Amino acid sequence: MNLNLLDPKLIVLAAVVILVVAVLAWLYVRKRRRTTAGLRQKFGREYDRAVLTHGSERKAESKLEDREKRVEKLKIRDLDSTEHDRFQSGGRLYSLSLSTPQGERSQKLMTWCLQ
Q1: Could you give phi then psi for residue 41, rounded to 5 degrees?
Q2: How crowded is residue 39: how many other Cβ atoms within 10 Å of its Cβ?
Q3: How far apart are the first and last CA of the chain?
Q4: How far is CA 38 from CA 32, 41, 109, in A?
Q5: For residue range 51-60, what is the model confidence (pLDDT) as tens digits?
Q6: What is the pLDDT of residue 13?
Q7: Quick count: other Cβ atoms within 10 Å of Cβ 17?
Q8: What gap in Å lies between CA 4 and CA 1, rounded to an integer?
Q9: DSSP 8-state symbol, 100
Q10: What are the extents of the domains in the chain?
Q11: Cα 107 to chain centroid, rounded
């Protein structure tokens, strides 16, 4: 097989291959930048902490994407009004219990638990 490097067909083929590789590299870099920007916007300062913790943007982004996928699997829903009221009253009970005497605190706790 005699290969002539000045053959126009070979030059065109090489140019097409180089062009395809350049376009693929550009698309990859563009996707990475978009991913990075999206994660930075979504996680804010947590993104920066993850980069510091994991030592590189790639590792941090991988961990944040894993976290995102894990959270998507959770069934997060709004509380209905009954659940909301119960959690609200529980929070008030906790905050009141720190400033009330021991006996009164126990009484309120028992009342709340029996509801």
Answers
A1: -70, -40
A2: 19
A3: 90
A4: 10, 5, 45
A5: 999 999 999 9
A6: 95
A7: 10
A8: 10
A9: S
A10: 8-73, 89-114
A11: 43
